[in-house]
């Protein structure tokens, strides 16, 4: 493993600050020269690091959807990136991206008293059919729908989630708002990604997800619902990213939260692997490495705890051939190339 650069300070991971880009660029070039780090274009084995939603909204205390354990996860993740600057050909960072008027935010729904749901409310099919929760009629024109059509879509949406065995629609607090500070990457991790970009001449690939108003989008590879009640497409799979990920010799995955956006992304990737080549699915799955000490599940004390569902998901991924690994172990010990 490479040494940690002098500027890395794990104590800053839980703080908001400005990355000094020009200074870090100069240091990254000098660091690459000092340690003989080659440009990514010369890599014999192409390895990707996929970071799921390492954003302030999920990873900083007092932000909207802070994941317990994410600060420590990111301290380990930052060190892991610097230790392996010479290993990753490409770093891909997803950005959960929202506006206020989306199906999982409070203002989208009202009850018969005209009240919005509180965060963590779960809305299932019966709630919608029996009109315990209805769409906010005042939002319909702004979304291009009549009140009746938007309500019909909401019924279709809740039914689709139920039939697919997915989580019921969860009303989340307003979070990861486009243009807001919560949407940005955690500064310490953004700095590490920028440092890698300069040191290896390999720009970070940013993937936007979650900005469609009428569907949740836990996975970066696919929204939760793809069609309306008439079977017409409202959103699409991220086929470009799916295809690109499968071209790498190995893909390492970390981020937040283990029970939701990480698990959903990995599950979608596994499904695509199994669909494309059922005979070689386990071989393709073996290219995926889950950085398990750099991700944590959603836990809201006294409200919800997704720890067990996260454990079950990762156990399923391992049974399918994926690897559960630790950041503290040198990649040479667990990378199968």
What descriptors fit this protein?
alpha/beta; Rossmann fold; 2 domains; 13% strand; six-stranded parallel sheet; 337 residues; globular; two-stranded antiparallel ribbon; 11 helices
Describe the fold and architecture.
The chain has 337 residues and is α/β, with parallel strands linked by helices. The protein has 2 domains: 10-98 and 175-329, 3-Layer(aba) Sandwich (Rossmann fold), CATH 3.40.50.850; 106-170, no CATH class. 35% of the residues lie in helices and 13% in strands. It has 11 helices and 12 strands. The strands form 4 sheets. It has a 6-stranded parallel beta sheet. It has a two-stranded antiparallel ribbon with strand order 3-5. Strand 10 and strand 11 (304-305) form a beta hairpin. Helix 8 runs parallel beside helix 10. The chain starts with 20 loop residues before the first helix and ends with a helix.
How is this structure best summarized?
With 337 residues, this protein is of the alpha/beta class. 35% of the residues lie in helices and 13% in strands. α3 runs parallel beside α6.
Shape verdict: globular
The named CATH superfamily of the largest domain: Isochorismatase-like
Largest pleated sheet: 6 strands, parallel
Tell me which oligomeric state these chains represent.
Answer: single chain
Number of helices: 11
């Amino acid at each position: 493993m490479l040494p940690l650069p002098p500027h890395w300070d794990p104590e800053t991971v839980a703080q908001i600050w400005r990355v000094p880009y020009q200074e870090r660029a100069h240091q990254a070039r000098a660091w690459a020269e000092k340690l003989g780090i080659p440009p990514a274009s010369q890599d014999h084995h192409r390895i990707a690091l996929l970071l799921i939603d390492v954003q302030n909204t999920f990873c900083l205390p007092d932000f909207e959807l802070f994941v317990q354990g994410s600060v420590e996860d990111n301290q380990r993740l930052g060190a892991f990136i610097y230790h392996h600057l010479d290993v990753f050909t490409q770093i891909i960072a997803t950005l959960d991206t929202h506006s206020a008027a989306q199906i999982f935010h409070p203002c989208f729904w009202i009850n018969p008293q005209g009240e919005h749901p509180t965060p963590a409310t779960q809305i299932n099919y019966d709630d919608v059919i029996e009109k315990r929760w209805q769409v906010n009629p005042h939002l319909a024109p702004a979304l291009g729908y009549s009140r009746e059509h938007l309500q019909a879509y909401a019924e279709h949406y809740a039914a689709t989630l139920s039939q697919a065995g997915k989580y019921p629609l969860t009303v989340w607090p307003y979070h990861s708002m486009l243009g807001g500070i919560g949407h940005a990457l955690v500064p310490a991790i953004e700095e590490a990604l920028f440092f890698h970009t300069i040191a290896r001449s390999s720009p970070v690939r940013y993937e936007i997800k979650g900005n469609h108003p009428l569907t949740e989008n836990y996975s970066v590879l696919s929204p939760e619902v793809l069609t309306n009640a008439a079977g017409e497409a409202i959103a699409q799979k991220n086929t470009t990213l799916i295809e690109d990920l499968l071209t790498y010799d190995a893909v390492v995955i970390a981020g937040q939260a283990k029970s939701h956006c990480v698990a959903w992304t990995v599950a979608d990737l596994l499904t695509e692997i199994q669909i494309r080549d059922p005979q070689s699915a386990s071989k393709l799955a073996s290219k995926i490495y889950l950085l398990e000490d750099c991700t944590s599940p959603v836990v809201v004390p006294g409200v919800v705890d997704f720890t067990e569902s996260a454990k079950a998901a990762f156990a399923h991924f391992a049974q399918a051939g994926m690897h559960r690994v630790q950041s503290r172990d040198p990649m040479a010990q667990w990378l199968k190339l």
